[in-house]
Amino acid sequence: MTAMLLPLLLSLVAPTALLAPVGAQDADPGYAPEDIWSEEYAFQIFPWGPHGNFEQLQFREYHDYFSMKQRMQTLAAYYPDFLQYHEGLLGGVNARGDEMTSEDYEGWFYKHSSPWMKITGNVQGGDYNDFNDDDGNYADRPDVMLVGNHHAREWMSYEVPMFFLETIAYYYGKAGIDNDGDGLVDEDGWDGIDNDGDCLLLNATNQDSNGDGTPCGPGDLGVDEDFSEQFITDLVNTREIYLIPMLNTDGNRYDREEYCGETAWENCYRSGWRKNLRDNTVTGVTPIPDVDEEVDEGCDGVDLNRNYQFEWGAPLGATGPLFPGMCYADGANNDVYNGPVNYEDNDDDGLV
Ligand SMILES: [Ca+2]
Ligand SMILES: [Ca+2]
Ligand SMILES: [Ca+2]
Ligand SMILES: [Ca+2]
Fold first, then answer.
1. φ and ψ at 119, to 5 degrees?
2. 8: CA distance to ligand 3 center in Å?
3. Who surrounds ion ligand 4 at CB < 5 A?
4. Measured in angstroms, how far is the CA atom of residue 189 from the centroid of ligand 4?
5. CA atoms within 13 Å, Cβ hemisphere of 230
6. How many angstroms separate the Cα of 257 from the Cα of each of 52, 87, 304?
7. Rg of the chain's alpha carbons, rounded to an integer?
8. How many Å lie between the centroid of ligand 2 and the Cα of residue 92?
9. How far is the CA of 206 from the centre of ligand 3 (A)?
């Protein structure tokens, strides 16, 4: 009942009274999260699901390429009004005049495209784009592209876009929801500030729940805990969002299936595979032929965030060395090889 009564107390009781919660007897007066908010909010149990892998849906376990893709397809099937799933790109003549096919956008080794989601209001309306094979193109809606997992080993970087996707999928079009269960609706929106002051009611040890050293700052329990669902709906309706959670499908599969394994953070002394799996032995960069079709760990791969053609290698190659690894057995790999520059999609990641 505390959670239901608190809003009333906040409006009726003098501020000093709030500093002495019932039952506090130690030197750290204040509430525990579950005293103020719903159990779901206090323990960060997300409302989406319930079908599928619970641990992954609750972001307590990493997706892999396959489960990520399956979840994207499931969400698109549930919410066809504003989500449209795509396996990759159809191809055609790109903006630079090059003829591209859908295979050009597949990874070198595992041959996956990068799955992506088109997100906008009435996504099946608007114009059709025959290069992307997507609907929902509206001249008056700005495009926003969100890309995760340039670096194969940075698994969290595709979970963040997946969390974004789950949030939008669940809350889009819903009326105001009391997200934290305190009886108030939309009282603390997304601005990194504890607008209603409830975080400050926690005991001191709970005020920095994300452990970044800043109490009641961005990311802490009680900060931005009751955003506006209408804000999400408006945001989606006025933009075309292109969400690519896992750009580096090749590298990520290799990292978790071959290079490090599923428990990489516990036992991968090499710190993980970073690049994609571009075959550097058959590109003319090195004279050494690729005698097999396997990944050559001392040679292959391009560091995707160093391969953008904008300011490639600038200044003087400082953003990335010009050569891949040693390209012989057990030779050192160059983890930050930036790949060639020729203003084409020379690393097959779908981005130029
Ligand atoms: Ca609330
Ligand atoms: Ca809300
Ligand atoms: Ca904090
Ligand atoms: Ca708050």
1. -125, 115
2. 27
3. 188, 194, 196, 198, 222
4. 8
5. 5
6. 22, 21, 20
7. 24
8. 43
9. 9
Q: Structure tokens of 84?
A: 């449209």
Between the CA of 330 and the centroid of ligand 2 the distance, in Å, is 55
Residues near ion ligand 2 (CB < 5 Å) are 177, 179, 186, 226
Ligand number nearest to the C-alpha of 41: 1
Q: Spell out the per-residue pLDDT of the chain, length 352, in tens.
A: 344 444 444 444 334 434 445 444 556 779 999 999 999 999 999 999 888 899 999 999 999 999 999 999 999 999 999 999 999 999 999 887 889 999 999 999 999 999 999 999 999 999 999 999 999 999 999 999 999 999 999 999 999 999 999 999 999 999 999 999 999 999 999 999 999 999 999 999 999 999 999 999 999 999 999 999 999 999 999 999 999 999 999 999 999 999 999 999 888 877 899 999 988 876 545 555 556 668 888 888 999 988 887 777 766 666 666 777 777 666 778 888 888 766 556 566 656 5
Residues 6+ apart with CB under 8 A from 288: 281, 299, 327, 328
**Ligand approaching nearest to the C-alpha of 198:** 4
Q: How many residues does the chain have?
A: 352
Give the helix ranges, DSSP H, for the chain: 2-12, 15-18, 33-36, 39-42, 54-57, 65-78, 156-171, 229-237, 249-254, 264-267
Distance CA 320, CA 335 (A): 9
Q: Report how far ligand 3's centroid is from the alpha carbon of 157 (Å).
A: 20
